Amino acid sequence: MEATEYMTGELCDGTTPYCKFKENEGKVISIKGAIHNIRDMSDFAFIILRTARELIQCVYSPEFSDYRMAENVVEQASAKITGKVVKSQTRDGSERFEIQIHNIEILSVPAAIPPVVISKKKVNCDLNVDLDYRPVTMRNPAERAVFKIQEGIQRGFREYLSKNGFTEIHTPKINFAGAEGGTNVFKLDYFGKTVFLAQSPQLYKQALVPVYERVFEIGPVFRAEHHDTSRHLNEYISMDFEMGFIDSFTDIMEMETGVLKYIMELLKTEYAPEVELLKVDIPAIDKIPCIRFKDAKQLCVKKLKNITDMKDFEPEEEAFLGKWAKQQYGSDFLFVTHYLSKKRPFYTMDDPEDPEVTLSFDLLFRGIEITSGGQRIHDYNMQVEKMKRLGMNPEEFETYLMLHKYGAPPHGGLGLGLERLTMHLLGFKNVRYAAMFPRDINRVTP
Ligand code: ATP
Ligand code: MG
User: Fold this and answer.
1) Catalytic residue of the set 372, 404, 424, 439
2) Fewer CB within 10 Å, N or C, the chain?
């Protein structure tokens, strides 16, 4: 039998996916998109066409062609508009382009009017209503820009690490053991067995250090947070990396500083339309100051009242330290290092000079934790000892301990919460604004 058709990989349907206005000035082009907004004025209409990243002003007038507006030209209809690209002026006198409509071909018609107005600058409704209608509210240009920026952050993370010799990995999310145990693991019935959803890729990314030396993963992790806070989700995207042959845990902090610089530059250049639309205050990163946990705690104790927990920070202490870093160093970021051993997971390397503390760090961004990281134990006996000291049974971690048993270089890494970073970059008060379809204690839909 003969093939009847061939695919060549060339998509050629005569439309331009992005409107290259300058190149096309004076030409007749076709462009597909959604009808975002119609402003009708008797014999004349403005039709705003929403494409993947742009809003294109198209002008209808009987003067431009024989085409006459049809009844099915309605908001949210999918359309192919053909017309001539002409230069026009905005109210402030700046130059812009528009399309003089020669034809509108309607490709699909909506069955109903959206329940919330999405064609204004912002979707003006309560967060819960917004989230209930997310598939629709995200069509709003400001709302979709949030997740375009989020794409830029992930892309920057991926590009920078790829350029620095990291291998991208994907680790399983259904696991026999929870990575760090505790109360915030989700249990799952797996054909009669109890398994856990991954809280982090920790144990697997470490296993891959002796294989690839440097690895990273961008993927979902699951935390059964039993509280309803403005900074916790039950499923979030963790950007993780792990690197081998480090000389010190500060190598990880250097790498993260490089990643963040790269991300911010990428946003300024390739995501300029969204940065402009959302008026994003991109932090300048030159060098990031570092302070030891115990010194940071002293600062908090001096300045804030009623501090009872001397082993960790309350959100208000993080907020205070954020302000302090800004005032003192003009920095939106602050590394806090040497957290107490008691408060860090079992795989964390204790400081040989003071075993009460660890070779670990958190990164605060505008007063909230966005990263935890540090050096991990690579020596088998040291890891088994620490597990026993913490009342854990090393036998339950046989697979994990293969890493140490069969030889691993000094290594460390970190986890950076994508939604947390997005939230504080965009100045949101609630992390849900920075999650496309958030999962929290009260929400699993849409
Ligand atoms: P927190 O103390 O803020 O609850 P954590 O110390 O428990 O966070 P880690 O295990 O250190 O969190 O996770 C690494 C990073 O992942 C955090 O710095 C944060 O950016 C992000 N993160 C952790 N938990 C959540 C969550 N429930 N929702 C969104 N992001 C989270
Ligand atoms: Mg942490």
Assistant:
1) 372
2) N
Strands (DSSP E) found in 385-443: 411-417
In a domain, 347, yes or no: yes
Between the alpha carbon of residue 416 and those of residues 54, 127, 218, 246, 321, the distances in Å are 30, 25, 9, 19, 19
d(CA 180, CA 200): 8
DSSP one-letter code for 102: E
Residue 232 is a catalytic residue: yes
Structure confidence by residue, pLDDT tens digits, 67-84: 999 999 999 999 999 999
Q: Is any atom of ligand 1 closer than 6 Å to the C-beta of 199?
A: no
Q: Please identify every stretch of the chain with a pLDDT value under 50, giving residue numbers as ranges.
A: none
Environment of ion ligand 2 (residues, CB < 5 A):
372
Is residue 173 within 8 A of residue 190, CB to CB? The reply is no
* 79 touches ligand 1 (CB under 6 Å): no
Say yes or no: 218 and 354 in one domain: yes
Indicate if 218 and 359 belong to the same structural domain.
yes
Through-space distance between the first and last CA atoms of the chain, rounded to whole angstroms:
46
Please state the pTM of the whole predicted model: 0.95
